Amino acid sequence: MSWLRKLEITSPIRFLCLLSSLFVLLALIKLFHNIWWIPTRIQKLMALQGIKGPSYKLVHGNTKEISSMKQESMSRPKSFSHDIVSQVHPHIHSWTKTYAIIASAETMLEKWKSHEGKEIEVFEEFTLLTSEVIARTAFGSNYLEGRNIF
């Protein structure tokens, strides 16, 4: 308790003020850690793995962007089709077009064009496509490069 004497805390009121100030400081540090440090760190780690997305915005996240996209979607006339994702969840539709991995599907379709008029083993093709998407998402390289390395 010598540190208390060094601070010359003589009354219980000063002690309570110091204790409450310390509590408030710790609460602010925890708040900063939870709403800024963790999301920013996760975004950087995911970017290092090749996973990109909309940038993090403090406190409200992407809710303003989502709201404006939904309002715009609701103001447009609705079409009678099975493609309702662009109308119900326009932010997911937009972000998928912007940040999704389509190179794997394009590679598969180019390969299929060379098999025009011939049978294609769809099970093997989709297994390869799934492996390709997982490899690109998790490791940032395609499946065939990873298979050659390992």
Can you give a write-up of this model?
This protein has 150 residues and is an all-alpha fold. It has three domains: 2-48; 54-76 and 83-99, no CATH class; 101-150, no CATH class. The protein is 70% helix and 0% strand. It is built from eight helices and no strands. It has helices spanning 2-6, 12-48, 63-75, 85-88, 90-99, 103-113, 122-139, 143-149. The mean pLDDT is 80. Keywords: Heme, Iron, Membrane, Metal-binding, Monooxygenase, Oxidoreductase, Transmembrane, Transmembrane helix. It comes from Malus baccata. The chain crosses the membrane at residues 12-32. This is Cytochrome P450.
Brief account:
Helix content is 70%, strand content 0%. It has helices at residues 2-6, 12-48, 63-75, 85-88, 90-99, 103-113, 122-139, 143-149.
